[in-house]
Amino acid sequence: MGGQPCCDKLGVKKGPWTAEEDKKLINFILTNGQCCWRAVPKLAGLRRCGKSCRLRWTNYLRPDLKRGLLNQAEEQLVIDLHSRFGNRWSKIAARLPGRTDNEIKNHWNTHIKKKLIKMGIDPVTHEPLHNETTNKENSNDNDPKNTQSHTPQGTSLGLENGTLSPEGATAPSAASLEENSYNSPASTDQNSTSSEDTESNNEKLYENDPLISCLFNDEDPIIESPWELLLQAHSNEQDNLDSFWAMMPWEENCPWLLDCQDFGIHDFGFDSFNDLEMVDDDAFNPEK
DNA sequence: AAAGTAAGCAACCGCCCCAAG
DNA sequence: CCTTGGGGCGGTTGCTTACTT
After folding, report:
1. Using the CB atom, is residue A18 less than 7 Å from strand B?
2. Please, which residues have CB within 8 angstroms of residue A150's CB and are 6 or more apart in sequence?
3. Is residue A234 domain-resident?
4. Backbone phi, then psi, for A187, in 5-degree steps?
5. Chosen domain end from A199, A215, A231
6. Is A198 part of a structural domain of the chain?
7. Rounded CA–C1' distance between A51 and B12, in angstroms
């Protein structure tokens, strides 16, 4: 079970991915789709662990990824979702199309956490920091199971009417904190009866905010990802592929591609990218 | 200008869950 | 029902870059 190495460690390369490796992986996925990740390195000619390939693809190479810092709206969504889900980064990422769990996790740890602390809000519990002592005494932060103990109200980054103040973050007054309906851990426990109640409370809380309330719908992300559009487009009309590739922000998503362009893309044997435009149905329909 | 420190982020590690046999 | 293997996830590490002294 679980602690087993996912692949033979001998001969498996680690560390930063090279442009050549990225190219191989992209070509393989685009040609064969996402299948058994363990088999991917071998089939793609990579000396990498299957897990590493999966992470590289999902966190960096996927065409539908946005790059760059989270904008303020996204940041606020992350905070709201974190107050609901805790450190379930994948769940949070699922509500932010184009963002990965890893990216959100990093952004949380490096930016949002600090902002919240600066505002006097405990980033773990979303409670005012003066309750921190009792919180820490009563909870074990290392236990992932405890992440569900977060208050459902959400934490506002100095928001009024759902918008962020430009540079965030002045410490909220006690009155403003009360207005934001922070609950003490005790009252949280008393008030929370079931996850269904919590969810319905959330829906009520955000019913006037379509953007936020959308997040509490478990089904669909707000925006369809370009990657999904690609698959849809291809299942409908092959001709749409050309326009899809034309619209894909490869330059933003793949910095290494820019590097290659700097040097002359064909120096790297990138003819295969031209082939993408001619790729046949099988490339995007592995089950066929 | 150089050295030291902090911040940011990509990548890895290892545990957990779940489906298949 | 048990075992096994693969994928997913959260936490952590370590490298690179930016900033400070």
Report:
1. no
2. A82, A83, A84, A85, A86, A124, A125, A126
3. no
4. -65, -30
5. A215
6. yes
7. 10
